[in-house]
User: What shape does this take?
Amino acid sequence: MVYKGRVPRFLSSRPDSRLIPLPWEVPLTEWPIEHLVALPRGISRHVVRFIKVGSSVYAAKEVIESLAIHEYRMLTDLHRTDTPAVEPLAVVTGRVDPNGVPLDPVLITRHLEFSLPYRSLFAQGVRPDTVGRLLDAMVVLLARLHLVGFLWGDVSLSNILFRRDAGEFAAYLVDAETAEMHETLTNGQREHDLTIATTNLYGEFSDLEAGQMLDASLDPQKLVESILTRYRELWAELTGAEEFSGQEVFRIENRVRRLNALGFDVAELAIDTSSDGSKIRIQPKVVDAGHHTRRLLRLTGLDVEEHQARRLLNDLDTFRARTNQGHVDEPVVAHQWLTECFQPVVTAVPPELRGKRESAQIYHEVLDYRWYASQREQREVPLLDATHGYIHDVLQRLPDEAMTDTKDIDERQLANPYDPSQGFVDDEGPMPADPWETAADDEPASAPGFLDIDALRARRR
Amino acid sequence: MATVSFLDATRVYPGADHPAVDKLNLEIGDGEFMVLVGPSGCGKSTSLRMLAGLEEVNAGKITIGDRDVTDLPPKDRDIAMVFQNYALYPHMTVADNMGFALKMAGVPKAERDQRVLEAAHLLGLETFLARKPKALSGGQRQRVAMGRAIVRQPQVFLMDEPLSNLDAKLRVSTRTQIAALQTRLGVTTVYVTHDQVEAMTMGDRVAVMKDGLLQQVDNPLTLYDKPANLFVAGFIGSPAMNLITGEIVEGGVKVGDYVVPVARDILSKVTDEKTLVLGIRPENFKIATDGIAVDIDVVEELGADGYLYGTLAGLDEDEKLNATQIVARVSARTPPQRGTTVKLTTDPAIMHVFSEKTQERLSD
Assistant: This one.
């Protein structure tokens, strides 16, 4: 292998030698297509491409060094706190082209498997309750970020990836460029994020509308208002104080249960009683997301989304009741459930169909399928029969979601299949001349970081 | 009239042991381009957000015109923030991209169209209005983002590092355009940057901040020629001012074997200190037969000039590693050689003198 120019530097916590032979001396926009994968993606200010690295698909973003490293650190912080975000893999710096001209660094993150393109999620024929679930997923993500002290600074659909989570969705953060990590966020800082969110989301929904990709029943204004309302309600539930009379102590447990049901554990709950005991005030001080995920992981080793975990745990509880093992230790029953219920369903799926849904999602959908089948046939349909029925009737007809293809979204032709943010091919003709740009090109280049004080004095005279 | 005033404005984050913004007093004139500059964590962005209503003001107040806006929510303050995190929507025209926030605010279509047209005219974007943004250059996209703020016709523009996403060349050209635009618009603008070169080339006045405190606010040349303290002296100007500490002796300050002459009235201001800090800008050094001895490590061309980088003569290898670097502008045609030692002097009238103890300026 001949390396042209200097070998770049790779900053990474887990070095991946497969990155080395990629064409780093070429600007990302000019990479040969054999290294690229055409996948749906939101809008980005920077050049972003999906690249093939061995058999993996990674997202590559070309951006100035300070931003690349900052974002790498922010994403790492999020990972450390178990907050849903794309996984940072490396920053490639020290790039130069064959003439020695420096190129911007590239931030590499792992492509989130089974993530869904938002631009098709709101399209014609979308069910109103699906829209509600997508908005809820976004709101939960934002609340979780704010809970760990993360100020996003750029809340938008393009910066979120959605994944199926049982009957709901899970949202993941994609872009952390403008983010700041604080001990805790002030109300002003959260409002800042919400202000940005409403503007960006209104713009994005309007853009979908302009591109005929928004169901006619959806109104950008109402969608945005809905998000604000949901966020405030969730935030109040997660952090708000509650007061009640001293007789209603059960409301403490109710609050904890409500939070658990939303998927949060209460690590710290402040309880204050008035001196005569007639009033009680409670306020959650520390809440952790992933209540069900953690429990399932502990019992079975399965690492799945929150709602999926709750569904599987429900099934585990049902299994326990059905087999009369209420007195048996939970981990023992969990292991049985895993080997007798979960794994057989998953292994029944032929390899060529495994790219359509994640395992936990398949199990959830099989349970649904079994319920409907049992209702129809007025009998208890066995799990494996339901599995085969599901594979035949449902799974086969589903599009692949492990790696979703842009071709499935729209018949219109993308201007650049490797950069969907450029929109569709329009016959618009060449761009007009721009006097501002010609004037800028005529300006003498000054060395960056150098203050030309003599020029400043001359100007100010 | 859109003047802006910070009056003893203070922001303390819960649990913090010192304020993020500490009794800020700053008056910004109607139509002025005020730049807040300082290192990361100095309080410049927090100050801007306090003005925007995105941060609580724990003490003091903030006014816009004759209105006390301290407790008003952002939407009632008649300000427009230009974010760095703009996104252009590919299916909407440039016109719609500029005007969609007005639509969200319920502004009628005719008025929206009018404002978009006016903003496009100011930004040189009239011929692009019906286009989709996909082929726009980085600089053009930045202008559309500014258009979004301009159409709101606010009393004050707030910009928080709007150019930090752009590459160096684009930063320089866009910065010039923003400054020209602001002059034409005449709207009071408060601009935050960490880049002192940017601050100096754009602002009518520049406010330097550090650790939540305002260090100095002045027009750029005054900041450059009369920095009020050691921090401003070292922060403003690139290459940075040389700050050399020396022992006070009869008639001046001793640096190495050389006594740099310092006026008696300055020396008499420090009765209980043994050392002073001399500030000399690289372009104010002259090579002479007698002066501060400097061992030259590197000679480089920067712009139309040459610059030498070195350390005070007579240091051993270990001392050199930790020593302050001396930078002097020299002739690019006949520069001195690296590895040699030169003697440098400066005109005492333009030399800056600072108290090491108080950090304050002592010279005129």
DSSP finds ten helices and 20 strands in chain B. The mean pLDDT of chain B is 90. The longest helix of chain B spans residues 168-185.
